[in-house]
Automatic annotation (TrEMBL):
Example GO biological process: regulation of centriole replication
Example of a GO cellular component annotation carried by this entry: centrosome
Species name: Psilopogon haemacephalus (coppersmith barbet)
Name under which the protein is recorded: CE295 protein
C-alpha cells in the first residue's frame, strides 16, 4: 500500500515537473530554436537590408538637397508694418 502511494506521488511530481518544463520552454524566445547558420544568414540579410535602406535614404537626401539648392531664390523681407501686425496676433 505504501508502495502504491509512493508511486502515485511520484507520478504527480513527474506531471508537475513536466508542466513546469513546458511552461519554461513556451516562454523561451523562438530564436533559440533556430540553428546558428540560419541565424547568421538572417543577420547578414538584415545587415544588407539596412545598408540598402541607408543608401536609398542618403541618395534621396542628396537629391532633395540638390533640388532645394536649385529652387532657392532669396525673397525680400516683409515690410515692417506687416511684422508688427503678426506679433499682435
Amino acid at each position: 500500500k505504501d508502495r502504491e502511494k509512493l508511486l502515485k506521488e511520484l507520478e504527480q511530481m513527474q506531471n508537475m515537473d513536466r508542466m513546469r518544463r513546458r511552461q519554461i520552454v513556451a516562454q523561451m524566445p523562438p530564436q533559440l530554436f533556430v540553428p546558428a547558420y540560419k541565424r547568421m544568414e538572417m543577420k547578414e540579410e538584415w545587415q544588407r537590408e539596412l545598408e540598402f535602406a541607408f543608401e536609398d535614404m542618403y541618395n534621396e537626401d542628396k537629391k532633395m538637397k540638390g533640388d532645394l539648392i536649385l529652387q532657392f531664390e532669396p525673397q525680400p523681407l516683409p515690410a515692417p508694418s506687416d511684422r508688427c501686425q503678426d506679433n499682435d496676433l
